[in-house]
Every structure is written in C-alpha cells, then in structure tokens.
UniProtKB/TrEMBL annotation, chain A:
Its EC number is 2.7.13.3. It comes from the Bacteria. The modification Phosphohistidine is found at H48. It comes from Syntrophomonas zehnderi OL-4. GO terms for molecular function: ATP binding; phosphorelay sensor kinase activity. InterPro entries: Bact_Chemotaxis_CheA, CheA-like_dim, CheA-like_homodim_sf, CheA-like_P2_sf, CheA_P2-bd, CheW-like_dom_sf, CheW-lke_dom, CheY-binding_CheA. This is Chemotaxis protein CheA. Keywords: ATP-binding, Chemotaxis, Kinase, Nucleotide-binding, Phosphoprotein, Transferase, Two-component regulatory system.
TrEMBL record, chain B:
One of its GO terms (biological process) is signal transduction. Coiled coil: none annotated. This is CheW-like protein. InterPro entries: CheW, CheW-like_dom_sf, CheW-lke_dom. SMART domains: CheW. GO terms for cellular component: cytosol. The lineage of its organism: Bacteria, Bacillati, Bacillota, Clostridia, Eubacteriales. It comes from Syntrophomonas zehnderi OL-4. It comes from the Bacteria. Residues 18-158 form the CheW-like domain.
Amino acid sequence: MKMDMSQYLDVFLEESKDHLRNLNASLLNLEKNPRDNAGLNEIFRAAHTLKGMSSTMGFNDLADLTHHMENVLSDLKEGLLEANSYVVDTLFECVDRLQIIIDGIESGTRVDADNSELIMKLETIKSGNYEAAAVLENELPTIEPGESTSINDDNVFSFNEYDITVMKEALSNGYSILHFKIGIDPDCMMKAVRAFMVFKTLEEDGEIIKTNPSAQDLDEGKFDKEFDLVLLTRADVSNLADRINNVSEVKVMASKTLNLDALLTSGTSLRTENKSEVASSAATANDADNNKKAHKIKQTVRVDIDRLDNLMNLVGELVMHKGRLEQIGATHKVTDLNETIEQIDRISTDLQSVVMKVRMVPIEQVFNRFPRMVRDLAKELDKEVDFLIEGKETELDRTVIDEIGDPLVHLLRNALDHGLESSSERVAKGKPRQGNLILRARHEGNNVYIEVEDDGAGIDQDKVIGKALEKGLITAKEAENLTREESINLLFLPGFSTANNVTDVSGRGVGLDVVKTKIESLNGEINVDSRPGQGTMFRIKLPLTLAIIQALMVSVKDEIYAIPLTSVDETTMITKQDIKMIQSQEVIMLRGNVLPLFRLARLIDLPDDLTEDAEMYVVVVRKGDRQIGLVVDTLIGQQEIVIKALGKILAGISGIAGAIVAGDGNVRLILDITTLF
Amino acid sequence: MDTAIDYKDQEQQVTDDVVQVVAFQLGDEEYAVDILNVQEINRLLNVTRVPRSPDYIDGVVNLRGSIIPVINLHTKFNLNKNGEDEDTRIIVFQFEDVKAGIIVDKVSEVLHLHRSDIEETSKVYNSMDAEMIKGVAKVEDRLLILLDLQKLLGIDII
C-alpha cells in the first residue's frame, strides 16, 4: 500500500530537527559525564524516535543509520560498552550525517546517502563486545506491556440514532461490529500518522463508524497513548488485529464484538436526550486527565513568518491611523471622540506589544548550535575549554536572531583561537588547565546584551599597535598617543587581523570589522574589554526589535526627518560664535572634544541660507566611534516609529534608511547616519 | 447556442486585437499605458521629497500605508510643466512587485486600441527616450504615445 506522506513531511522535518538538536546536546553531556544514565536514555529515545519517524516516512537510509546507532546506544545503556571518546566521536559523526540527510530532504536534493562506512564503524564498536547479542531484542520498538486491557466499558462511545440504524443495517447484512482499543507507543512522535495508518489498514476491510476521541482529534494527534474505534466489517478479528500490530509503534490493546441488543437494552449508550451533557462530563474528565500531562509541555503553534510580518504591517498601519484620529479629534475639538480614542489607543498599544512578543524568539535558537561547534573547535585546536551559556531564554526579534549568528560564531572562534591559551601554557601561568568561555545574553531596558567572555591571555596591546603600524592603518605618531582602549579598538579597523599565521579557525581575511559592520547594521554596538593575562570580553548591545524604533524627529526648512535614537548621543544648542574652522571644516567644541559640524540642510540638498540666528540646534550623532554634530532648524521630539522600506526603485540611496508614515498621513524619511556623511 | 459562440468570438478578439489603455496628458502631449498595469488613479497626494534621488523622482507618497515613489515624466521627458491644478492625478501602477506612481496633468479616458492602429516606435520616434515607448497609436485625429512601464521603471524581467 502506497500512502501519500507529503503532508506529514513538514512535521517530520521540524521534529527531526528537534531530535537532532537533542542528540547533539545530550551527546555533549554524555561526553562530560560518561556514566550519566539519564542522559543516555535521552539520546536513546531521540535516536529511537528518529528511527521510527524516518521509517514511517520511507527514508530508509536514515532509519538504517539510526538503527545501528541505537544498537550501540543500547549497549552503552546496558553498560556493555564504555562511552569513550572514540565512541562519542563516532556518534557525533553519525549525527552530522543525519543532519546532512535531513537537510537534503528539506531542500529536495535528497539522494540515498551511503552510510556503509559509518555503519561499519558502529558495528566494530558493537562487536568489540561479545555479549552484545544478548541485548539485541531491545532494538525493536516495544510498547510498554500494558496490563491486559479488556473492554468492559461500553460508555466509551455515545451512539446516536443514526449510528444505531447503520449498525442494525450492517448486522442484517452479515457484518459484525467490532470495538478495537488501539495503543500507541508513548514515545511515538507522530501519533497522527500512526492513527492514520491504522485507519487506512482497517478501512481496506470495513468501515469505521465511530472513534473516541473524535476522528478530527485523532487526525491532529490530540489524544493520549490509546484510542477506541468501532468498525463494521466482515473480516476476522484476529486477522485485523494482526494487521494493525504490523504497523510499527502500534498495538491492539483489546478488541471485542459489540452486541447491539445489549447496547440498546442497557440504555447507557443511547443518549439522545442527555447525550451532550454526558459527553461533556466525559470530556471534562478526559481534559483533567490530559491536563496532568500537558503541564510539562508548552502549547505552541508554528506560524509562517510571512504571516507575522503581515500582521506587524497591519498593526503598524493601525497605530498610524490612531495617530490621525487623534489629530482629527484635536483639530476639530470633538470631545465625544476622546474616550473612544483613548480606548483605541490602549487596545492598539496592547496589540502592538502582543505582536512584538509573538515575533520574539528565544536566543536559544542561535546559541544551541554553539556547544557542538566549540567542542569540535577545541578538539581541533587541542585546547581544553569549559563552555558555559547563560541566559539562552533571552528573547529577541526574529529579524535580529537571523542576523546575529554569524558574528557570534566569529567571536567565539576568535576567543578559542586567539583568546584562550593551550593547556600547557595555562598551567605554566598558574591558571587552571581548562579555559573558560562564557556566552551570556541578558535584557536591559530596551536592549539585549550578548557577551562573549574568555579567561585567556587578553589582548596584547603592543602586538595590536605593531600590527596596525605594519598594515599602515595608523602612523607611528598616532601610535604613541593611543590609550589602551583606543589601541584595542584598532581591532575593528577594516583590514586588521592579529593572527600571525592564518589558521583554519579564524583570521581568514574577514576581521572584526565585518562583525562590527553587521552589528551596526542591526542598530547595535559592539565594544571590547580586555585585561592582559586575565581575559577578554566582547559585549554586543542590540535593540529588541528593528521594526519599531525610537526616533528623534527634527525639521529643516519645512521638511521633517527622523533620526534613530540609537544613533543620537545628545542634543545641544550653540551660537554662531561657537563654530570654529579647521581646514575649511566647521567644528565645535563640546566638553573638550572637537566635533565636526555638518548642516543637515546642505547634506540633503536644501538651500542653506546661513541664518545669523543667535542660536542653533545641534544633534550630536554617533557614527562608529566618531561623534558628529548635525545642525537642524528645530527639534520636534521623540517618537516611536514603524519603519517601512522605500521599495525597489529608491533602494540604496545613501543617507536614507527608510520611511515612516507620520500621524498626519505624510511620509517622513529616516536618516541613515552611517551613510549620510 | 449561436449567441454563446458569438460571445466567445468577441472575447477572442478583445484579447488578440484590442488593447485597453488609460490615456492621459503630459504637457501638450497625450500618452497611454496598458490598463492591466494600472492599479488606481488618485488625486495628488502630499509628496515627500527624497533627497539624493534621481531628479525625475518627485518623492514618495503614502498610499494606504505603503510608501510609493512618484515619477515625474515632465522632468524625464523634458516637457512643459503646467503646475498642479484640479486635473492633476497620480496614476498608480504595479509591475511585478514594484509599485510606483506617475504624475499626469489630466487623465482623459479609457480607450480600446486596435493593434493595427499602433505604429512601432522606430518608425515615428527616434530619440533617447525611444526605448521607453512601445509605439504610437492613432485614434481619429489624436496621437497617443504608448509607454513601456517595464522599461520606464528599469525592471529587468528575465
């Protein structure tokens, strides 16, 4: 029988990815505590489920490989094998292969992978132990031998009159009415698929007229480890039961022939009047039962990202129109409108924050792949490291999450390669053999901080300066006057790389400047704190979201612009006398610092009639580590804005980051400080 | 039965031989665009200037929450500017995923043009802007310049 499984493919992919993550995480754990049986069970369960799922879906290479992994794992569990580094490495290799296969399935470029080499490896590991054969039975999916269940409760179903008529008809035509209680392996991850397969099998030889829970719930996997069904068939009970048992992870717990007369006379099942009541009380009992189990599992829905973006756009528009409504209320002095506007205000603010929250994803998603990466790298570099992750539940906007992975990989690689010393060096310095590497995320106000900290050698200031001189990034004269902080910041200059020899790990031409550019494109900041001999910490500061930001609204002539608040350091007021000239560049002194001064009007091609106004407003903006004064006509105020793109035709105009729709319905442009000058 | 066949024939003719266009005025000239690309025609909205953009782009407008660039064909084609008045409109059109508006002095009407009435560009028009023009159509004593929106927007469709 060929079944169309494509509708389950998405579920399969999502879930197998979860299992792979689990496998990776618990294998790492196992490596640390080889005798941790709970951990082993976790790995075994993940591998087992993967095997079941992939054979259901017909991915035999996956199933075969996981099957062999399972063999080794079960020996480990029994204590017949020891989880030494060779075994763990091989298992890691297998997980990598699984990942490749699953990625292949997802991208549709799947070929049946040749896993024979890996399987051989697994076999050898296993054959290293001759008692292995004894545990072989363990490999088959077994269903917990439930107490021999019998069906004595006909109240499972509530038949209506129509059902009764159908059953009567069937009986008179020589069909029998069978009640099956079907059990599903509690570890089974795709219960709906199993139920579907049971249905398919049974419907070849009969008609299912009733199920409990309902067919729809079964279809959605909303049931515990067993379900009941009533089948009209001419086939033999034991034959049917055998065929159901052939479906993997499924077992017939009990079966019996229903006696229609008994049903009718007992009256318990024909509840035409109080049916709903009884059903609902049964449902509550069921719910209570389910609730106990549901406590542990958080209910989630997977939603297409496009839909979320769409929702966000709509909310943005709602917020905008709310603004317009406020203006109308104000200009026309409609007092009746005030209360309604306040209500709308409250609702739209709530709505906005809910949507924002929906878009938030725990940073775990990005962090999860790091333990494995750090482990492999440390092995490669022959360094001992204790990698610690803190605050992985910290939430960030999805758009930021998507972008932050690569910079973090870079920083972690840097820390391992350049930061941490080798074990022997550490011992010589009187440090513990094992280096510490900490990846930390936390919330603070409207920002998220991510820190990568190591207790390695710290940054060698002289080496950095030497390198910068060598590469001609600074002059000897400049080098003399650098503070420690300034010299460390040289690391972020384009074309800088401290690694003396380019290793495979880091220093492949892309330096920290790429990291910095990326972070800045996310409206974030990066800085570094390093003490010689004690370690280095890179700290990234990111806004919670990119879709809605705080901005300072300013005006020039009759045009209004928004400057993202993340780029604004302060605002100040100067007089014409404060402006000095240095090499035909206007500058001002601000608390001892010399800032170049630009007139916004000139930057955006407006006539700049050098007004002799006594005072003018200056917005001090930050471009990289440089402060720049921007002269504007007036400061309008701070505002929360919803960023919109300018579209294809106007994409890539320097100095403009996007547009917003203001409360009055007019479009205002957002200045991009990094490209404005 | 006969009527059904007739209807079908007509349909066939419409798709094959006839194009529906929106005709409008720019300066003293009359232009037209294929109606299938036109999304809507609006009164002039508040245009926000975009600094550092090409000079034929007047700016952007807010069309029910979307930001749409407005192209000024007067500038692009070096036509006399009449200034804004009661008749000034923005024709908003969509091509693939690109939306844009053009400012026109007046929207005249929707016309059915027979393909046979359209002269190819090279025969009548020979200038820098020729590639943005699909052809010229004769309607009674009027001449309509048919614009190629795709070229106008510089969209490359592979």
